[in-house]
Write a structure and sequence with these properties.
The protein is mainly alpha-helical. 78% of the residues lie in helices and 0% in strands. It has 18 helices and no strands. The longest helix has 32 residues.
Length: 343
């Protein structure tokens, strides 16, 4: 039996989150793209509700990214310099970001829609933190901030004897920070702040993975109760009984959702898993292009929109989005490997 197949059969619980990490990212990317198709509606309330919750794909990305960061930091040991850790992440993220955002910014400048200064703010990734008008893409600046914080949080996490309580504390802490940003007029950072619990859950999942913890009945009960709490918050929010960011509702359901999704992926056929893995490996490039597609609906729709519910438009544009993202990922990967072989 092939080693990969043996690994699949042995993977259970938190191990599946690692084994099917790319596939989960691919599924999350499709969910985010569905969410970004704002004008599109299925016309069926349950499916439209799933579409409207597609922002949760970002939370899945952050949990899985945090899991990978924890495993990387723990396996590399304390001898690894922070500069090396940061350089590896920057090399993966920034070339794709600069290329896509740079070319798009040049086009926006040519159309008179932004100035050079705005483009430079976008390329710096600092635009999100300073709330610069006419810039775009909050996710990459937030992701880089999570990368920046990861070594310090992992150090705190490793020293903490009650790791689950530290993780749980991130929920009220994040909400408290968000409430503090309001009077300080910094609440535009809510997409980052309100996802601190998702990041903390990913670190905890990485710890469970490396310590070979199983999803026991107790674990299943905790994740089930958290999911129920998140669902209750969602119901109360829909009834206008309270207002809280949907990120906290998703964070409550997040671990259960990821574990169930990993279990479902493990039962898919070989080809669907390969497709999801391909999307997951290219998810950054696909996402960067999808942000542009989403912003430029009014530009592209007159050229391509045909038929009901924008189906033809999204079939064409999203197919191109996926193909270009995969191609760009392969191109950048080949360039990195070539440069590495030359040094």
């Amino acid at each position: 039996m092939a080693p990969a197949r043996i690994q699949e059969e042995k993977a259970t619980g938190y191990g599946r989150l690692s084994l099917y990490r790319s596939e989960l990212m691919g599924a999350a990317m499709l969910w985010v793209m569905l969410f970004h198709a704002y004008p599109f509606r299925f016309g069926l309330p349950p499916l439209d509700a799933v579409k409207q919750a597609g922002f949760a794909g970002v939370d899945i990305f952050l949990l899985l990214s945090a899991l990978g960061l924890y495993v990387s930091l723990e396996r590399s040991g304390s001898g690894t310099k922070l500069a090396t850790f940061y350089r590896r992440r920057a090399v993966r993220v920034l070339p794709a970001y600069w290329l896509v955002v740079g070319l798009y910014s040049l086009w926006l400048i040519s159309q008179g829609r932004i100035g050079v200064k705005t483009a430079l703010w976008s390329l710096s990734t600092l635009h999100y933190w300073f709330h610069i008008p006419d810039t775009f893409n909050w996710y990459v600046p937030a992701l880089l901030a999570f990368y920046l914080l990861a070594p310090f949080y992992v150090r705190l996490f490793d020293r903490c004897p009650r790791k689950e309580w530290l993780t749980a504390a991130m929920f009220p802490l994040a909400y408290g920070i968000y409430r503090l940003t309001i009077p300080l007029h910094l609440n535009y950072t809510e997409d980052f702040v309100n996802r601190l619990p998702a990041f903390a859950l990913g670190i905890l999942a990485g710890h469970y993975l490396l310590t070979a913890r199983r999803v026991t009945a107790c674990h299943a009960l905790v994740w089930g109760l958290l999911a129920a709490a998140g669902g209750t918050l969602a119901v109360l929010w829909r009834m206008h009984v309270l207002y809280i960011s949907p990120c906290y509702m998703i964070a409550g359901m997040l671990m259960a959702l990821c574990l169930l999704a990993a279990w479902a992926i493990s039962h898919l056929g070989q080809w669907p898993r390969r497709f999801l893995r391909l999307l997951g490996e290219s998810s950054l490039e696909i996402y960067l292009l999808n942000v542009i597609v989403t912003r430029e609906f009014d530009t592209l729709a007159p050229l391509l929109d045909r038929g009901p519910r924008h189906l033809f438009y999204y079939a064409v544009v999203y197919t191109a989005n996926l193909a270009l993202g995969i191609g760009l990922h392969r191109l950048l990967t080949a360039a990195r490997e070539h440069l590495t072989s030359q040094t």
